[in-house]
Inverse folding.
């Protein structure tokens, strides 16, 4: 029996996968599509991560979809509200009927002879057994996020096996963990750590955030007063659009200011921290990073909750290096020992491109590290493949929306031109930069060598700028010398025959 065929196969039913399906339904209604999702639920990140306090660290007015207003008064939102927003979108638009759960895609092989991808997945049955399934499609759209789902990043800590308490990674939070009255040490200083500290300190005996070096932390109100005011005055979509543009403009301004005047921005952030923590607190040691603002993602904390937790005495920050784990906790290089019942290793993610699937084109394995990223959407030499990778300096969804609309525009263009294959060709362009530039976060540095690279000029640059992308993805022509359109030999021959018959 021939494998089932779809015009478009979407990998992943997270924020981006549902976005992709919405755009396909709206802009390419004649296309058939399916979403293959390895897990059992919609939501991706917002379903996987269940640690206490899980929330967005960017505002939902830009992290919501362009087509569906975010109606909650909380602009910095709890994870479960984001999960509901994604699930409700899928249900209301009938997208959920197109999702097949429990399909983990392992391999995808492109054939130029038929202009199809052959996609191999392992399907989990109800009794937990796995069976191989193959589907085919003309266009593969990876919405698989940017990190490995099976486990997060955990460095080897010396003596970890000696520790008599519980060690937890936030990516695999135990459902019924009771930390009431427990001493907790959280290793890390990123968004996850600064979320966990105030949340756990509500009931834990004490929470210590143990960091090797500090991160920029800024407080913002959980509610966006202007957005909430506009919502009371205008129809929901108008209010949403205005608030979205307000926040895009503000984020772009702050990012550009950080790039041009980093010392000025650093001084402003640290002044605010001092205002929160008081003059006696050692801001220089615990809240003054060694890098420039936006060289790593800024950590946003709602209503200064992290600072409040420290001031209340229920939480503290220690800046030091781990010497070894002990039976009772962690011994630091300074000689100090932190006693703990629970150690949380908020040490990050393992980045992964295209959901970790093996790609091949006409029998040749694709080595992504040797490819160039075309507009941050496709990769050189690989036909009919696109993926969503959002912004690191703004909300993910801003770029996801642009990419989804771009892919639909491209598919419609190909239909109009009667071509079934599009391949970005890099020609003489060579790699000059990693996929994400000037970003020093550990999880990026560990992974970027194996990711597609950037060339020196467009369309081989990956922008971290919504306005530039809006032009490049919404308006720019496909006739840019980099996209090569073709047809499989059989189709080409048959169009030649049709042409010959027509001429006769
Ligand atoms: C803790 C945390 C907090 C974050 N906070 C923010 C924030 O505040 N703002 C922001 O803009 N971004 C944030 N991000 C980035 C975040 O990942 C994006 O906001 C968004 O969730 C990405 O959506 P996605 O659908 O592209 O990827 P994901 O949410 O990762 O979803 C990918 C889906 O693809 C599936 N999948 C992957 N591989 C395969 C495969 N081989 N076969 C089948 N299915 C597969 C996964 O199971 C998953 O359901 C955060 C990330 C994390 C981890």
């Amino acid at each position: 029996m021939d494998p089932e065929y779809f015009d478009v196969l979407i990998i992943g039913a997270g924020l981006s996968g549902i976005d992709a399906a919405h755009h396909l339904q709206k802009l390419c209604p004649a296309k058939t599509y399916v979403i293959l999702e390895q897990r059992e639920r919609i939501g991706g990140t917002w379903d996987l991560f269940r640690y206490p306090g899980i929330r967005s660290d960017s505002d939902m007015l830009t992290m919501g979809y362009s087509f569906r207003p975010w109606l909650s008064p909380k602009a910095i939102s709890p994870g479960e509200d984001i999960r509901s927003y994604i699930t409700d979108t899928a249900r209301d638009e009938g997208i959920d009927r197109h999702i097949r759960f429990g399909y983990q895609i392992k391999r995808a092989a492109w054939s130029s002879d038929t202009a199809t991808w052959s996609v191999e997945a392992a399907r989990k049955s109800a009794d937990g057994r796995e069976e191989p399934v193959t589907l085919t499609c003309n266009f593969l759209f990876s919405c698989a996020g940017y990190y490995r789902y099976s486990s997060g990043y955990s460095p080897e800590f010396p003596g970890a096996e000696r520790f008599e308490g519980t060690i937890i990674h936030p990516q695999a939070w135990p459902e019924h963990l009771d930390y009431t009255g427990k001493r907790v040490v959280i290793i890390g200083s990123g968004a996850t750590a600064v979320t966990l500290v105030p949340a756990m300190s509500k009931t834990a005996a004490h929470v210590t955030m143990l960091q090797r070096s500090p991160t920029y932390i800024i407080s913002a109100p959980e509610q966006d007063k202007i957005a909430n005011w506009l919502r009371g005055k205008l129809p929901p979509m108008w209010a949403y659009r205005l608030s979205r543009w307000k926040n895009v403009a503000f984020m772009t301004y702050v990012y550009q200011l950080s790039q041009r005047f980093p010392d000025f921005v650093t001084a402003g952030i640290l002044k605010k921290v001092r205002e929160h923590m008081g003059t006696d607190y050692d801001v220089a040691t615990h809240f003054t990073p060694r890098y420039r603002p936006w060289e790593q993602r800024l950590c946003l904390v709602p209503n200064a909750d992290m600072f409040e937790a420290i001031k209340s005495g229920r939480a503290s920050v220690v800046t030091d290096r781990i010497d070894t784990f002990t039976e009772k906790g962690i011994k630091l290089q300074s000689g100090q020992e932190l006693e703990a019942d629970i150690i949380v290793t908020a040490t990050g993610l393992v980045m992964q491109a295209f959901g970790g699937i093996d790609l091949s084109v006409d029998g040749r394995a694709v080595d992504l590290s040797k490819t160039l990223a075309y507009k941050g959407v496709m990769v050189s030499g690989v036909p009919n493949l696109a993926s969503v990778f959002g912004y690191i300096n703004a909300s993910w969804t801003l770029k996801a929306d642009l990419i989804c609309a771009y892919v639909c525009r491209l598919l419609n263009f190909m239909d109009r031109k009667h071509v079934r294959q599009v391949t970005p060709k890099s020609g003489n362009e060579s790699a000059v930069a990693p996929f994400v530039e000037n970003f020093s976060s550990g999880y990026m540095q560990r992974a970027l060598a194996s990711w597609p690279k950037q060339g020196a000029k467009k369309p081989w640059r990956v922008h971290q700028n919504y306005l530039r992308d809006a032009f490049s993805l919404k308006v720019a022509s496909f006739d840019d010398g980099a996209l090569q359109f073709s047809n499989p030999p059989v189709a080409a021959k048959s169009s030649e025959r049709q042409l010959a018959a027509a001429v006769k």
Observations:
- Residues 383 and 423 are 4 Å apart (CA to CA).
- DSSP finds 14 helices and 25 strands in the chain.
- The chain has a mean pLDDT of 94.
- Residues 11-17, 36-39, 44-46, 49, 56-58, 63, 103-105, 143-145, 149, 192, 355-357, 388, 390, 395-396 surround flavin-adenine dinucleotide (CB under 6 Å).
